[in-house]
Amino acid sequence: MSIFAKIFNMNNGKSGSRKNQSNRSGKPKTGGAKPFQKRASQGQGTQKPKPSARTFDKKPKVAAAPKVDNGEMRLNKYISNSGVCSRRDADLYIVSGNVKVNGEIVTELGYKVKVTDVVNFDGMVITPEKKVYIVLNKPKGFSTINEDIVSQENVLSLVKGASKSPIAPVGRMDKSTLGLMIFTNDTNLIQKLSSPEQRSSKMYQVSLDRNLKYEDLERVQKGIYIEEKRVFVEDVAYVENQPKTEIGIKLKASNVKLVRALFESLDYNVLKVDRVMYGSITKWNLPRGKWRFLTDEEVRSLQQG
């Protein structure tokens, strides 16, 4: 079985429809003495309890003064919140002169910064937000247009509530394209994956209006010029056990529109483009329109790709 057949069969399987079932009865155990149950006094009559000395020795509680939030935090906490290292390691970077605040080197432990300050950590600008990485199985009808207000047609509406901090999609995807999309607040990763030099492979399943001729498949494999630039394809093949209108294609280009352009340049109408794999990330067990957080291993693979 080819790599395309394995991936497409895995992604097209009916998954994600299982319902959680609980085996717990939820009924409390009966029998035995009830906790804190008073025992009936035996023999002598009831006696009045002696007042505890602590009752009279207690000092009245003084309400703590409310903390004034001036939007500042310690520099090591700022660095730790960005996810690059722990507070203890951050202190080592600070005293060694590898941290700048607004362009100035800071070596003072306990130094406080504001959220609006620009902090440069070991050569890169960081933000005091916990990094969030999300993968969405995008359905048809949603665009990746950046809007101040998240509308029903904006793909951000599908991941609303996934993070307290603003997240953005990696790359663009039009309304008619389906499949995997990565979202994050890690601006460094977004820039890396959006760069022409990025090395993460993407795999798509393309549906055409008619059977793809074998000579055209070979032309795509050798590389076709789109707007005077040759588009390099890592692999292209018919999807196993599917009509020859179903094509699997793998390439590193981050522009999804190139996938359509390859086949349209050969006079085929592209009915559907479905991204089924991004790097090592697949949409297995992820229903259409749903999202999940990436695992640490998946994040590392993107950062190293």
Shape: elongated
Low-confidence spans: 13-45, 51-57, 62-69
What is the element string, with H for helices and E for strands?
HHEHHEEEEEEEEHEHEEEEHEEEH
The helix count comes to 8
Subunit organisation of the chains: single chain
Distance between the termini: 26 Å
Described by strand count, sense and barrel closure, the largest sheet is: 9 strands, mixed
Mean pLDDT: 80
The share of residues in helices is: 10-25%
Strand content: 15-25%
Structural class: alpha+beta
- Total DSSP E strands: 17
Radius of gyration computed on alpha carbons = 30 Å
Features of this protein?
single chain, about 300 residues, alpha+beta, nine-stranded mixed β-sheet, four-stranded antiparallel β-sheet, 17 strands
Descriptive account of the structure:
By secondary structure, the protein is an alpha+beta fold. It is 21% helix and 23% strand. It has helices at residues 3-12, 53-57, 75-81, 87-95, 187-194, 214-222, 257-264, 296-304; strands spanning 72-74, 99-101, 104-105, 112-114, 119-121, 124-126, 133-138, 168-169, 177-184, 202-208, 224-226, 229-231, 235-238, 246-251, 270-278, 281-282, 291-293. The strands form four sheets. Strands 7, 8, 9, 10, 13, 14, 15, 16 and 17 form a nine-stranded mixed sheet that branches. A hairpin with a 2-residue loop joins strand 2 and strand 3. Helix 3 packs across helix 4. The longest helix has 10 residues, at 3-12. The model is unreliable at 13-45, 51-57 and 62-69 (pLDDT under 50).
